[in-house]
Amino acid sequence: MAVDPRGTDLKRYLQEDPGGPVVMLNLLRYAEGGRESYEQYAEALRTTFLPRYGGEILYAGEGSTALVAEAGQDWDAVLLIRYPSRQAFSRMVADPEYQQVTAFRTRALTEAVLQATTPW
């Protein structure tokens, strides 16, 4: 299962841009011992990359009781991160310094959902 966006994913993401800010939904499932590695990634994201690209954490929390979910659909963590534009997010993931830090995220996760959302 992929945990990082691929080039074709990012290309489609930019082609489908409705304009304006984007809120990225992150659903995360940690590998054994992965929480610590993810925390290293999250610290760099929070202190360096989100400020650099205008991103803002709207919500970050641990998964809890799943009320409506099939077996295996529960998540360890949920994040909502707002970026000023899809281009800002794309520039961040293309940043060579950011790419070095993503190894912590990749190593930390066994499964992830990263989905752009648009307001109703």
UniProtKB/TrEMBL annotation:
Pfam families: DUF1330. InterPro entries: Dimeric_a/b-barrel, DUF1330. Residues 35-111 form the DUF1330 domain. It comes from the Bacteria. This is Uncharacterized conserved protein, DUF1330 family.
